[in-house]
Write a structure and sequence with these properties.
Length: about 550
Amino acid sequence: MLESLHVRNYVLIDSLDLDFSDGFTVITGETGSGKSIILGALSLLLGQKADKEAVRKGSEMAEVSGTFSIGSSEVLSWCNDHEIEVEDNTLVLRRVIRSNGRSTYSVNGTALNRSEGEELGMLLVDVSSQHAHQSLMKNDVLRKVLDEASSSLEALDSYRASYKELMETEDKLKQTKELMERSSEEADYMKYCLSELENADLKVGEEEELKEKLSLQASSEYIAENLSSAQDELKSAQSSLSEALSYIRKAEKKDPSLLQYSERLESQSIETEDIFESIRDYLSSMSFSETEIEMMNQRISLIQRMKRRFGGSVEAAIEQRENFREKLELISDSSDVISSLEKKMDKLSKEVEDKAQKLTSLRKKGATAFSKHIEEKLHRLGMEASVFTISVTPLSSPGPYGKDKIEYLISANKGEKTSLIQETSSGGELSRLMLAMKTSMEGSGSVDTMLFDEVDAGIGGRVATCVAKELRQLSQSKQVITITHLSQIASKADRHYKVYKYEEKGRTISHIKLLDGEERVRELARILSGDESEISLEHARKMLEDRE
């Protein structure tokens, strides 16, 4: 659930620290006070798009952070997949928007992109707003709601795995058949190319090695000439060193302290002789024949020709060689492969059909119970004459989500025929329908926090009281946060926040505070009648006393 929200330099908010708890929380305030700003700040944490205009005037950046406690295995699995470390089942989401329009998003210090943040946001908070109501118009959303309500998600996952394998096998079979059709003319060409590549026997780094040898050969005469001169000098030096050593040894007989010089000179003489022999060996190894040079040039030309024809590099040519081998093997075995794939297709098709029927059965059973439950909720929410059904009818062929066409049908008024909710429902009816769905799915799903904005659109009086009761009931199993204009809803909450604006140093600031005691009574009175008359205050106290 959402534990805290911290906002800095966002629109009219200078600095805001807001703590949440489980149960039912409402946020109220006069029109224009900044309720939508707080919702916007929270939406940034849930991956919504950022606008540089949201940065408070005069600030370098806006910052929003929120702390969530999590227990959902789905959220933990998502974090694990994205290499996010989770300690004490806590997530800290942080969004920064800079005045130049750039924004960053992180979870427990790990940077994510916005789309990843949106994925996580959907697992953390279920948002119901005027915009979210429009999601009811999308067939994918309606299907997902029914699958959750009918406990068919596991069956759907099993079906989708088989369907995916069927589609992959079908695609592979199609490719194999297409390859076989053009194999006669392509096979000869591939065999010719493969033969060339195999004969070339390309090796990575060989061309560079050959060029280095040729470069050395080009300088061999110059190298040999200088090394021969060096040999002559070394030979002369050896003779001089030997003669000098004999003189020192004679002197050493009279003065033993000269031993150190004879030893050093002897060592130098041995080193000089070793260098002389090493140069002699090097010169003897410099034997490049014209034939050998020609063979190296021909080999380089062959390597370069293979590179030009097969990808531009030795690595690409080697990869192309392996591709030719694989394709030729596939062509030679294509009849067996096609037969095997066709048998696999038959098996998978039956498997998909069986799993689709199981999924349909679960959906139909769930649709009956779920639609009945929703209809009962709608009656309690002031739509007494409404009729609600979920239609599950067969499609001509299986698709990614089964073999069912799922439609939500409603008749809001007595005597009218049921029609698709996309064609008939008003904004107020959609608000109540969404609330009925959410409360009918109470306890199911992995999202722990439910946020309702404008759930009170187009309702009042007794209906508003019914909506309030449903929200309070939902808060027994979920964290419920509601932005509302209605006293009936506000009075049922466990915690009540008020958003307000004030001026400071010539600037407008939006803020929020937790109401308690008489402050909450006065806010309810304001919502009731726009003033704090004795009658409205008394009515507000009574509503709070009766909120259970």
